[in-house]
Protein 1
Amino acid sequence: MGKDNVFNKKVTLNAGGKLIDLSAPKVMGIINITPDSFYAGNRKPGVEEALQLAQKMLQDGATFLDLGAYSSRPGATDISVQEETDRLLPVVEAIAATFPDAVLSIDTFRHQVAEAAIKAGAHIINDISGGTLDADMFATVARLQVPYILMHMKGTPQNMTQMAQYDDVFNEVLDFFGSAWHQLKQLGVHDVIIDPGFGFAKNQQQNYTLMRRLQEFEILGLPLLTGISRKRMIYGLLGGNAADALNGTTVLNTIALNKGANILRVHDVKEAVEAVKIWEACQ
């Protein structure tokens, strides 16, 4: 769907001078520099552990590495800007120095953390709040001239499970993207990627409604990222927990590719890269 659809979706990304072609889907590996992220398999609080995981993900075919030092799972503990920065920067600096060709995304909703990480060698800002939790985020992205992942969420990680109330979840998310994209364009931001925010202030039914209608986001003409890896929408339906949700993740990733996803954000890079290869062979 992605290459020549009627909406002429933007399919190139300039990340630190590297031009990335998103007409062929890419994989983003998750590295959580936190002690309490929801999936234990990707909690890598130490620099050496994070470097080892980064090396494995790059060898497995990841185009992007997404580094986060603030757990955004439902009900996660809030931490200060200083603590988030102190956790994050040594890992950003180490990965940037060890793997200079890696494209690093920073998972934060705070402009101070984002700016410090970009200056330390990162390339992309991935904001789970889509600018709603920090009024200075959009202006910071514009000043830094870096790609921005605009995700939809209501509330905060601490209260978002109580915010899953919509008259029409798809159209509310679409309207949010349209408004935010207009603001970002006015500020001179060129590279915006949208992420519907599966699991963020959405219940299971709402998550599957968004997945079912995912291709309709093409109307915005923006690259699309999906982050459904090992989430409750999978094991809430199938049983078990996040550790049991790899097979369901692969199925949903494949459905997302069929519906126009350009980037798969995952804990398990090898399996996602294999899904992309098989999907491409069928096109």
Note: The chain is about 40% helix and 15% strand.
Protein 2
Amino acid sequence: MTQFKTIEGLRDACLSLPAGDEDAAQQAAARQNTLTKPPGSLGRLEQAAIFLARWQGRHLPRLETLHVLVFAGSHGVTARGVSAFPAEVTAQMVANFSAGGAAINQLARQAGATLTVTPLDIERPTADFTRAPAMTEAEFLAAVQTGHDAVPEQADLVALGEMGIGNTTAAAAVAAALLGGRGADWVGRGTGVDDAGLARKAEAVDAGLARHGTMLSDPLAALRCVGGREIAAMFGALLAARRKRIPVLLDGFVCGAAAATLTSLNGAGLAHALAAHVSAEPGHRKLLATLGMVPLLDLDMRLGEASGACLAINVLRGAVACHNGMATFAEAGVSDG
């Protein structure tokens, strides 16, 4: 098991990432050209099947062992009034997950996926990033390690998500630090804040950017200083999945901030990931465009919890069913023109 004992050790891991299986991808692409349909007529379903083949290392991909990993964290920046819900809702929702009462419980079950919810010191919020780094180096590395260790050794697919009151503010701060702009360019209404709450979110992001200054030019420092434990854990899980060549579905804006950190360190860092959906948070659409990722779904959702990622599993199931189950022209006795 890899142990990230230093920031530089973590950075080195991000800079040396395995590629997918191009032979499997080419075989999958060749199969697509023989199936009983006009070439390209299934659009992105064809691309999705080839993507899965590349990262599973088999020309006939499968979706049998699926894991949904949800990480929960508490944020000190909530003291600045950036959420419509109180900070204690994070712990209450984790309890709801355990009881099976949340949306993600229903969606994971419907998708045929195993759900694992990991709380990260939710009784101890991160520091208010407008006053101090959100996490010490030790806290940051521990959160990354927790996410990294949560990814199983073998899986056909992993979907990532989160829960944490205040975390859209942290995600906006990470996005601004990595990609530029000010708070107003990245914040949205999150849990449903009013105009005054939206202004407080933008002000908090700007204060965090000013507080940490040039430190934010390093992606890992940016995630540590203005992010959150659950964002760091998703970053660690995304890294682990890549190292194990497991394809990943990314959920919403907060998950996107974790993904942006990896691609800021390694331009090819997200080759094993798909954007499951684009959320109603305005910063998410901008973030995906900057990352060059096109979402599979656009359903005006803003729940988090990997809810959009779970729904996208069903799209991928359709892609795999067609790729594996359709007859070829030769098998069906159909002329291919």
Note: The mean pLDDT is 97.
